[in-house]
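Appendix B, record 7
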Amino acid sequence: MNCLKMLLLIIYHPVECMVIIKREKSFRYWMIPAFYGAAVVAKCLYAYTVHFSLTTKDPQNVNILLESAVLVLPLLSWVICSYLMTSLIDGESTLKDQLAVSCYCTVPYTLITLISIVISQFMSLQELGIFNAVKGAALIWMFLLLFVSLMVLNDYSISKTFGITLLSLIAVVILWAVLILLFSLTVQLFSLIFNFIKEIQLKGGL
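Structure tokens (predicted):
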């Protein structure tokens, strides 16, 4: 189906969009950098251009890599962990299905983020609560779409979807705990090797 029609479907008829993804298997891998990239660009534009009275971030201190990682890595972690959980518990979706849906689920986030940049130019500090509600709606919408996609792609009941969601979130936490531990151990190993080489060089100089 036409990509533009799918974009409209994920906003107005998300369940239908997910059914089509599951049935037609029309996912292309270029969608990952395209959709995720658009969300990252929107997030970075927000960091640099949102009205100064409505943000606590100094644009000069914005780290683009960090902004990108904060958005993309949790999404990819969710895709991987939810796929593993559904594979173990009567799941019907493939990894490509999960990736495709996660791409389309970023669309409302991207649109609302871009809209919030525009409306921020006409808002003051007194309207910060309304502005934060708009920002929160973008994330809530995306999370709800991910939840619904888990149910639709795997033909789960609502209660089973809640259970799989909880297990997937636990798996994400475990995944990141392991990755952080491995990173810490790797840093310590390289530091030990570096100090060992430096000590040998010092002794050799003596």
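Remarks on this record: The radius of gyration is 21 Å. The chain has a mean pLDDT of 88.
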